[in-house]
Amino acid sequence: MTTRTPLRTSLRLGLLALPAVAFFLVFSYAPLAGLVVAFKEFDISKGIFGSPWNGLANFRYFFSSGDAQRILLNTIVLNVLFLAATLAAGVTLAIMLNEIRGRFFKRAAQSTIFFPYFVSPVVIAIMLQVLLSGPNGSGGVVNDALTGLGLPEVGWYTEPGPWPWILTFVKVWQLGGYMSVIFLAAITSIPEDVYEAGQIDGASRAQMALRITLPLLKPTAAVLLVLGVGRIFYGDFGTIYAIVGDNGTLFPTTDVIDTYVFRSLRQIGDFGTTAAIGLFQSVVGFVLVSTAVLIQRRYSKETSLL
Amino acid sequence: MTSSVAKTTARTTARRAGGLEPFTLISIAGVALFMIACLIPFWVILSGSFTDEQTLAGKGYSLLPHPFSLAAYKLIFTGPTLVSAYVASVFITLVGTALALSFTSGLSWVIARRLPYVSRPLAIFAYIPMLFSGGLVPLYLLVTQYLKLQNSYFAVILPLLVAPFLVFIQVSAFRQLPEEILDSARVDGAGELQIFFRIGLPLSKPILAVVGLFYAVHYWNEWFTALLFMSDVHKYPLPLLLQNLISNVSFSQMLPAAAQQTTPVYQLRLALTVVTIGPILLAYPFAQRYFVKGITLGATKG
């Protein structure tokens, strides 16, 4: 068909893409021009292009503020935890689901574990409050269980230590089912004879899962890993901000680039510095994802993304 | 397994065959455990939303609503702000999804047809925003200073209108349409636009449902852009209202004046949560099937 379509038809059909093109120009490409704010002493009354340049001062200010190290570290630590945990949960759940033979149970299980994906971060935040802090700041389902076991209550919302793990738990709860669908699809595309061969060799179910299914899921995991690595500098703002909000006692372990940027924009109104952080985030993210794609391409040509 | 019939069934279901080995049992237990973990938070919230406020405050949450109370729900459906939040969310979801779906379909069709000079540049054009974005500040300045969309539902709808990821899902679905059908329409004298509207779209209903659902869920749950750009309490969409109830900010403004002295705060929070999840729960049995299809398509095509 490509050879039979003259340029004129191309352009006429191209009109269909016009609304989306306009959207990308306004909301994705125009903001790139707005990134010059990162190099300016921004004054809202003078606008983006009228404000005076100040070179790298915004970047210097951020990196010398003492917050930089903490929020960068938090961002990376949390994202690595999220990525590792959701991938592991997805693979594990997929392999486990694959063992289940009852059609009804399998379907019910899939529907149930997939549901948290549909839930708004705000709702998750409320669930966590119910579980961790009770209606008036003490108690909660988890604490009730702890006291039931003779253990002391924990003031979860005043204790920054456990939060990376709590958030990881939330991520697994939210995305475990979603990830398992991706891996289950990959499992069903594994050719049947591989398992037959395994069966003839007398492999047990566990051995087949560990020696056949698991290694064959590697390419899928690699693709998801690459996508995740590209997002490693983005803090999953929605979930973290919904849960932690402006609770400063939890910042030592939960404050990430996105929440920091949001706060400084909202409370301090420092456009220059926050734009600088955003630019830094985008550049590092871009470098990371490109590197990851290149590495992945070298090792498995067929499953590459581009 | 001695008869040949048994052998063939065993062969075709090799990955399912075998007795109930320990590994299978562990798997069933593991999945069941995860299922319970997925359900319990919903149940606690549902039961709490029907529990009398005083019991909630005094004894905390429990798995059974006792004493049973509908106070919070009565408040929700009589309070004007809570109703207007519902209206806001429905508007954002319906209009947002309709616009997003039509924009995405148009772009995806053009990319999927592999037109010379047009398709490939467009694909790259749509891919770049996935890799590189301006971030919060330029977006904030754009919406507030240049487009002046504060307190408009379109401030929530527009910035999220086309998701590159969903464009690529739809492109790969459009490419699976049999070329012969399109060709035969061409032979019959249909123009390219006619082919898109009369043949391409009707044949792609399943994928339109998938992509539409992704957008609908994403708009229904959206609160970040609302948080950024909406300051008028009466225009808050549901998730933002909920978020405000968590932090108790401007709480009193949201309730009918008469009810304020005996407001069941905790119960109300839970009831509003239930009301927020409600529509998703109703659409779920239908939606889930399509979602799985969409993810699988996205995952295999990258």
From TrEMBL, chain A:
Residue span, ABC transmembrane type-1 domain: 72-292
Keywords in alphabetical order: Cell membrane, Membrane, Transmembrane, Transmembrane helix, Transport
Subcellular location as annotated: Cell membrane
Membrane-crossing segments per the record: 71-97, 109-132, 172-191, 212-234, 271-295
Nuclease recorded as keyword: no
Keyword Transmembrane helix among UniProt keywords: yes
Stored SUPFAM superfamilies: MetI-like
Pfam family, one: BPD_transp_1
InterPro entries cross-referenced by the UniProt entry: ABC_transporter_permease (IPR051393), MetI-like (IPR000515), MetI-like_sf (IPR035906)
Domain of life, source organism: Bacteria
Bilayer disposition of the protein: Multi-pass membrane protein
PANTHER family hit by this protein: ABC TRANSPORTER PERMEASE PROTEIN (PTHR30193), LACTOSE TRANSPORT SYSTEM PERMEASE PROTEIN LACF (PTHR30193:SF44)
Protein name: Aldouronate transport system permease protein
Organism field: Kribbella aluminosa
TrEMBL record, chain B:
Subcellular location: Cell membrane
Statement: the UniProt record of this protein carries the keyword Transport: yes
Keywords annotated in UniProt: Cell membrane, Membrane, Transmembrane, Transmembrane helix, Transport
Annotated InterPro entries: MetI-like, MetI-like_sf
Domain of life: Bacteria
Record keyword Chaperone present: no
Membrane topology: Multi-pass membrane protein
The protein, known as: Aldouronate transport system permease protein
